[in-house]
Amino acid sequence: xxxxKACLIGNPNVGKSSIFNTLTGSLQHTGNWTGKTVAxxxxxxxxLDTEWELIDLPGTYSLIGESPEEKIxxxxxxxxxxxxxxxxxxxTNLERSIKIILEVIDVxxxxxxxxxxxDEAEKRNIFIDEKxxxxxxxxxVILTSAKEKRGFKELLDxxxxxxxxxxxxxxHTAKIERFCAYFLPKIESKKKGKAISLLYTENQNxxxxxxxxxxxxxxxYITFKEIRESYHENAKQxxxxxxxxxxxxxxxxxxxxxxxxxxxxxxxxxxxxxxFGILWLTIYFSNIPSDLLxxxxxxxxKPLYQIxxxxxxxxxxxxxxxxxRTLYWVVSVMTPPMLIFFPLFSLLEDYGLLPRIAFNxxxxxxxxxxxxKQSLTMCMGLGCNAVGVTGAxxxxxxxxxxxxxxxxVFMPCNGRFPAMICIIGMFFxxxxxxxxxxxxxxxxxxxxxxxxxxxxxxxxxxxxxxxKEEKPIFILELPSFRKPKILRTIYFSIKEKALHVxxxxxxxxxxxxxLIYFLANIxxxxxxxxxxxxxxxxxxxxxxxxxxAILLAFLLGLPANEIVIPIVMLIYSGGSMLVNYESLExxxxxxxxxxxxWLTALNFLIFSLSHFPCATTLLTIKKETNSFFYMFLAFLLxxxxxxxxxxxxxxxxxxx
Length: 656
Prior knowledge:
Elements lengths: L1 E9 L5 H9 L16 E7 L2 E7 L11 H12 L4 E7 L3 H14 L3 E6 L1 H6 L2 E3 L1 H8 L3 E3 L8 H10 L12 H10 L25 H13 L2 H16 L3 E3 L6 H11 L4 H41 L5 H39 L1 H8 L1 H6 L5 H11 L1 H7 L6 H10 L9 H13 L4 H32 L20 H36 L1 E2 L2 E2 H15 L4 H9 L7 H10 L10 H10 L4 H12 L5 H11 L2 H28 L1
Parallel strand pairs: 1-3, 1-4, 4-5, 5-7
Antiparallel strand pairs: 2-3, 6-8, 9-10
Helix pairs in contact: 3-9, 11-12, 11-19, 12-20, 13-15, 15-16, 16-26, 17-19, 17-27, 18-19, 18-24, 18-25, 21-22, 22-23, 25-27, 26-27
C-alpha cells in the first residue's frame, strides 16, 4: 500500500477541522470562531490502495503569518514535505479565501482547492462556476459540504490521482518581479515561482549576510500595501465570471443578531446580560451538586483511613487529613460550576457571539495598545486563567499576546467564584433563595466589570512603559450565526476544558494540603508555624483592611484558589486540619468573632479580583512566554495593584 501525506490549509472558520474529522474519523472539536485549531492535528486514513497521513493546520489568512499559529501553518506549507496541499475555502465568501489559495499554488504544484460550506452558499443564492475557477487556477476544484458529507468521494479520488500539475503563475508589478528575480534563485525550495511569501519567512536565513541586508532594504521599499494590491489584481482576474450572487442580503437571523450585537446602544448591555445569565446559572445550580460531592468524599474518608491503617499514623494523618481532604474540597467546589460554566460558554462560542464581543471591544482595546481579540482571552479566563493564557495564541503579534497574558488574571476564574459567592452571601445578600442568587450574580457581574476596567487600565500602562514599540494588528472575521451541535459541544467543553482544568488543580492541591497540614501541626514553643506566619503578615493585612490570616490563606491557596476560605477557617479556629462549615451563618459568626466587617468583606473581594494567579497559571505563563521575567511580573503586578486598592478603600472609608 502506498503512503502519502496531505495538509489542510485555509482561513480560520472555513471548516478545516470538520473536513479533517470526516476524512480521518477523529473527534477534534470544531467551532464558529477564529482560533479553534491552535496546533497541527494529525490523522491517518486509508482510501483504495493509499494510506494517507492528513495534517490539519491552524487557520491563517496568509503565508506571511504574524501569530504563532499562522507561522506554524506557513512553515509547514513552505517546507513542502507533503504530497498534496488541500486549500479549504469558504464558498460563501470566496473573495476572502482567494489570497491564501494564490499563495499556496505559488509555492506548491500539487494543490486541490476545496470549496466548503456549499450548503450555506446555496441557501444564500451564491453560485460558483467551479469548472471555470479550476480552469483559471489550473488546479482541481471540489465542491464540498462537511455538514452534509457532500463531495468527499470526489475529493478522495482527486487526491489519489493528483500529479504533474502546473498551476496558475502569479503576475506582479515590475518592481516586485525584480525583487523576486534577484532573491528567489538564492533560496532552495520545491517551487520558486514568484513566491513572495518565501522571502518574508525563516527562509531568508538561507541568504548570505549581505543579501539579508539587501532583502531588508527591499522589504521596506516594497510595502505590504503594494503586495496586497498585486494579489488583488491576480484575484480579480481569477474570479472574473466565477461567482454569481442572486441575492446579496444576509439571512434574517444574521441581520437581526448582527444589529443587536453591533449597535453601540444595545451591544454592551446585551453582553453584560449574557454574562449575568451565565453567572446566575452557575451559582444557582452548582450548590446542591457541590454539597453532594462533599458529603460523598467526606463519607469515604473514614473507610479510606481504615484501609490504609497499615501506614504509620504520622504519615497517614497528613495524607488523609491534609492531602486527601484538600483534594476533595477542591474537587467538590470546582466540578459543578465548571460543568455548568464551560458548556454554556462553549455554546456561545460555537453560535458565533464571541467574535461580535471582540469586534465591539476593539475600539477601547486599540486605545490601550491591543485589539479586540484580547476580549476572547478574557472570556476564556473567566473559566480558567491558564486557559485564557494559552488562548492568547490567537493574537497576531507578540506584544498583544504579552498584554493579554499579563492582564488575564484580572478576570476571576471559576476557582475564585466560590469564595467570592460565599463572602457576598454572608455580608451583602444574606438571602439564599432564588432572589438571593440573582443578587449574588449581579454583584459578581459588577466585580467582573471592575476586572474589565482594570484590564483596560493595566493594558494601557504596560503598553506605554514596556511594549510601546510595536503597533497592534487586528484581523477578525464575523462568521454567520450557526446553530451549535449541542451534545458535541458539551462533550468537548467538559473533556477539553473542565476535566483538563480539574486534573491540573488536583495535581497541585494534594501537595498543598500536605503543606498546610504540616504548617498547622508543627509547633515551636506551643505555637504552630501557621500562627507565626499569620502574625508576620498581620501588619500588612491590617493596613489593607484585612488581617494576616486572610493574606496567608491567599498565599497558601496559590496552588488552588478554592481552598482560601477553608484555610482562613483553619487559622481562626486554631485547629490542625481543614474542616467544612455547617452553614453560612456559622461561618459568618466565626468571621465576625475575628473582627470581620462589611469593609473586610469588600477588601476580600477586591483582593480576590486582583492578586497573583494560581500556580498552574504561572507555570503556563512561563511556558507560553519562555520567560521567568513575565511569570514574575504576572505574579507581582496584580498583587501590588490589589494591595494598593485595598489600602485606598480602607483609608477612604475610615476617613469618611
